[in-house]
Amino acid sequence: MSNPVLVCALRRINAIKVLADTLERLPLCMEKLGKSNSVLQRVMALTPEMTFRQAVLFFTEKDFVTGKPYFYCLTCISLNKCIYFSYLVGETWRCHVESLFTYLQTGAQVLCTVLLIKPGAWTRGLARILRKLDLEKFIVVGMKHTNLEPDIALGLLSPEMKQDPAVLEAHCTYLTSGSALVLCLQRPNAVKKLLDLLGPEDPKIAQALDPFLWRAQYGINAVQNGFYGSRSYQIAVQDMKLFFPEGLCCADCQTLEEEEV
Fold this sequence. Notes:
Layout: E1 5-12, H1 15-33, E2 41-45, H2 48-58, E3 65-66, E4 71-78, E5 82-88, E6 98-99, H3 100-106, E7 110-117, H4 121-135, E8 139-146, H5 150-155, H6 159-162, H7 165-175, E9 180-188, H8 190-198, H9 203-209, H10 214-218, E10 227-229, H11 233-243, H12 254-258
Parallel strand pairs: 2-5
Antiparallel strand pairs: 1-4, 3-6, 4-5, 7-9, 7-10, 8-9
Organism: Crypturellus soui
InterPro entries: NDK-like_dom (IPR034907), NDK-like_dom_sf (IPR036850), TXND_domain-containing (IPR051766)
GO molecular function: kinase activity
C-alpha cells in the first residue's frame, strides 16, 4: 500500500455487531456528507483465530496492553479511504494491565450477573426457571427474597422508561406491588447470555422473535414482563453490591475479588 495507514484498536461492548452495523450504514452517511471520488473498501476477518494472527503483524506484547477489555476490533485505516478490519474478541473486567494477546489465549472468563424475577412470575414458575438456569450452565451463588423499595425499583429501570412519566409510574407500581426473588448467577459470559435468554422487554416482541424466550413465556405485557437482568457488567457489579452486600455463596471468581464483591 503506497499511502500511510493508521492502525487502531477499538473497544466497546458487542463491538463486532455494532461495527458491522455501522459499516452497513456508512455508505449512506457518506452520500449525505458529500460525494467523493475515493472508493471505500473493507475486508473483515470473521474469526478470533484469524484476528489473533493478523494482530501479531501490527502489535507486540509491549504495544498492545489494556486495563479493561470488553470486545475488541482491530482497525487499519488508510488515508486513501481503503479500510481493513479484523476483530479481537474478549470479555473481562480487570484492574491490572494485562496483555491482550495473553487474554485471548486464556479464553472466556467466569462472570456474575443479577436476575430479578418480578412479583407474580417467581411464585408460579420458580421450579421451571431454576431448571432452565441449570440447563444453561448457570450456577446460583446468591438468592434473596425481597420487597423492593420505590427508590430501588426506580434504579432498575432503563433511561428510556424514565422519559415517560406514565410508563415510569406503571413500572414502579408493579415492582413494589409484591415480593420479588433476586438471584446472582455465575457462568462464562454471564451477562450477555442471560440477556439473550430473556429477550426483548416487551413480551409481544419477544413472542414474535422466538416463543422460547423467557419473557415470551412468562411475561404478560411490557410492564409485567417477568424479569429484570443486569444490562451490562458494570451494572451487574452495582446490582450485586446493592442486593448482596453481605457477599455471595461459593462464588470463586477473580473479577468479583477485584470489584470487592
